[in-house]
Amino acid sequence: MSANYRYWCGECHYRTPWLTESQGAERQIDHYAQRHPGVPPGGRVEVRQADSGYGCLALVGGLFLLLVLLSTCSSQARSAPLPASPPTAVTTDPAHATALAGGEHAVPHPSRGASPGRP
Ligand SMILES: [Zn+2]
């Protein structure tokens, strides 16, 4: 899965392909057994910076989450104040007020009927 290890021979210019840590170590030991018998495996291990890909993924994921959050926020904000909201608000406000007034007019009726309803 994570073939990010490349083992370099310390005795010659041999290097293993990109392998997992254990696979690379095996290859290097094999190489030493074939090419440098009696020499303890040395050299160095090159580690590919592929882990930064995960960081990149996390960053992209975070950005995506942020975008989703922003889009939900902006859609909510967009639904509340429409571009033509100031004029409509002005026109709907009196209508709302009259509706409320009409409601207030209707309110006394039941209360008046309720008080003399009980003898
Ligand atoms: Zn070698």
Q: What is the straight-line distance between the termini? A: 89 Å
Largest sheet: 2 strands, antiparallel
- Name the ligand types: zinc ion
The amount of beta strand, in percent, is 5-15%
Low-confidence stretches: none
Structural class per helix/strand content?
A: mainly alpha
Strand order of the largest sheet: 1-2
Helices and strands, in order, run as EHEHHH
Keywords: Membrane, Transmembrane, Transmembrane helix
Transmembrane segments: 52-70
Region (Disordered): 77-119
What would you say this structure looks like, in words?
- The chain crosses the membrane at residues 52-70.
- The protein is mainly alpha-helical.
- The chain has a two-stranded antiparallel sheet with strand order 1-2.
- The chain has helices at 21-35, 51-79, 85-106, 108-114, and strands at 5-8, 44-47.
- The model has no long low-confidence stretch (mean pLDDT 76).
- The chain has a domain at 5-48.
- The chain is rod-shaped and about 115 Å long.
- Residues 9, 11-12, 14, 31, 35-36 line the site of zinc ion.
Write the layout of secondary structure elements.
Layout: E1 5-8, H1 21-35, E2 44-47, H2 51-79, H3 85-106, H4 108-114
Antiparallel strand pairs: 1-2
This protein binds zinc ion.
Zinc ion binds next to helix 1.
Quick summary of this structure?
By secondary structure, the chain is mainly alpha-helical. The protein has helices at 21-35, 51-79, 85-106, 108-114, and strands spanning 5-8, 44-47.
